[in-house]
Amino acid sequence: MKKEQIVKSLFMLLLAHGLFLVSCTGDEGISETGFGIFEVIDENTIELDGVINSASLNHFNALIDSYPNINTIHIINCDGSEDDEINLQLSALVHQRGTNIHVNDNGLIASGGSDFFLAGERRTMGANTRIGVHSWAGEDDNGNFVSATDFPVGHEFHQPYIDYYMSVGFTQQEAEDFYYFTINAAPADDIHWMTDQEIAQYGLLTQ
Questions:
Q1: Phi and psi at residue 3, to the nearest 5°
Q2: Which of these, 158, 98, 107, 166, lies nearest to 132 by C-alpha position?
Q3: Do residues 69 and 42 touch, judged by C-beta distance below 8 A?
Q4: What is the Cα–Cα distance from 161 to 28, expressed in whole angstroms?
Q5: CA 175, CA 155: separation in Å to the nearest integer?
Q6: What is the pLDDT of residues 100-130, one digit of tens each?
Q7: Which phi and psi angles does 189 have, rounded to 5°?
Q8: What are the residues facing 48 on neighbouring strands?
Q9: Is 182 strand, coil or helix?
């Protein structure tokens, strides 16, 4: 999935201060153990399978209201996000709760899904897993198509993602290194599957 929004620095300021913008969308997509893309496995563990969307933060908040001891997320497949702003808010909340994230055997994370994975307090992966990254893209104020690599290093449009990586434990240098790697690894309409060496180089796993 494309990163279709350029997320402004104002949002990241709210994020840094723990101010989450939670809207109410009712109970659509919620059952006793199912909350949108999340499925409860036991009192401590949930599975995530699907694309993060505009309802995912509300679904997660409803889930932890019902299951407050959740501390582990197992990802089956998360190949992106349809709403980057919600994805970053959700990721920040997951990180602030000290949640561990594991990608299951034969699992896949990509684009916004890879960003979400980094929210894990402990980040682990099973066998035959894949992590995909690419540039983001969107429209500027004049309606012109732009991508991350259209802007020079240090431009304000890069900072929200760098700030996010720092908020989940990366140093500034690590955050910048990983961010600029991702936007140069593949254009927005393509994907780069990270090698084991790259995964280790950029510190995506905690053990």
A1: -85, 100
A2: 107
A3: no
A4: 30
A5: 15
A6: 999 999 999 999 999 999 999 999 999 999 9
A7: -95, 15
A8: 38, 75
A9: helix
Contact 204, 117 (CB under 8 A): yes
Report CA-CA distances (Å) from 117 to 66, 87, 165. 23, 11, 11
Instruction: Determine the pLDDT at residue 27.
Output: 58
d(CA 104, CA 95): 19
Of 41 and 139, the one with more pLDDT:
41
On the question of pLDDT at 26 being above 70, the answer is: no
Angle made by CA atoms 148, 154, 155, in degrees to the nearest 5: 55
Q: What are the tens digits of pLDDT across the range 64-93?
A: 999 999 999 999 999 999 998 999 999 999
Question: Mean pLDDT, the chain, as a whole number?
Answer: 89
Rounded Cα distance between 196 and 39, Å, is: 29
Burial class (CB in 10 A: 0-12, 13-18, 19+), 151: middle
User: Which amino acid appears at position 120 of this protein?
Assistant: G
In the three-class reduction of DSSP (H, G, I as helix; E, B as strand; rest coil), residue 172 is classed as helix
Q: Are strands 123-125 and 72-78 parallel, antiparallel or unpaired?
A: unpaired
> Stretch 146-156: mean pLDDT, rounded?
96
pTM: 0.86
